[in-house]
Design a protein that fits this description.
Length: 189
């Protein structure tokens, strides 16, 4: 599992609110989702994986572009909310689990990391990159707030960590956030 203090912090946030980052109502989040989907492209993706899906607001917008979508989050309350957000979508599955320790046995052609990388340590980001490389995934899109975080890493530092292990091919900068695309080398797995 990730560091206990990170899990405790995330559990506390979800105990205090069913939408800790105002994903459902914030115009800023809506604009970020629009830009994210623009960067992801129309698909269709054979099998997309969203790591750290939160309450599923971005995932439910991504779902129509995917033949199959797996979402995961390490906090049970987030997973319950995400399952409600995508209820009735038979091609979508929501898993309880932490990256990189509990990644599912899938070979996605898109991995979406939206506002999740800075919760990981540099060594967890390295393990995540190794998993992505062996999975032979098509593309990785990372979205990160560029302001200060309460975590060890900022969004920009977390992107730099991932870029030490995977080729960074594109960066789009916006007010308050950035979207980066990585095109992993094909692994042997
Ligand atoms: C800020 S929310 C982003 C939610 C969603 N991706 C979005 O952009 O709307 C970050 C989510 O990542 C989850 N998370 C943090 N670290 C994680 C990890 N190591 N594995 C899985 N989920 C994680 C948190 O529980 C939280 O729900």
């Amino acid at each position: 599992m990730p560091r206990p203090e990170v899990i405790a912090h995330l559990n506390r946030l979800y105990d205090d609110s069913d939408d800790p980052w105002d994903h459902r109502a914030s115009p800023y989040e809506a604009e970020k989702y629009r830009r994210t989907l623009e960067a992801v492209g129309p698909g269709p993706f054979a099998h997309a994986l969203e790591i750290g899906c939160g309450i599923g607001e971005l995932s439910r917008r991504l779902a129509p572009r995917c033949r199959r979508l797996t979402m995961m989050d390490c906090i049970p309350k987030a997973v319950r909310a995400a399952r409600t957000a995508v209820a009735g979508l038979d091609h979508v599955e929501v898993l309880l689990g932490a990256a990189p320790q509990e990644l599912p046995p899938v070979r996605p052609d898109l991995i979406l990391l939206s506002e999740v990388l800075y919760f990981l340590t540099p060594s967890e980001i390295e393990s995540l990159a190794a998993w992505i490389t062996q999975a032979g995934t098509g593309t990785v899109v990372a979205v990160n707030w560029t302001g200060p975080t309460d975590e060890e890493l900022t969004g920009t530092a977390a992107v730099a960590e991932l870029a030490r292990h995977l080729p960074l091919t594109e960066t789009r900068s916006f007010a308050g956030f950035r979207i980066d695309r990585f095109a992993p080398r094909t692994g042997s797995g």
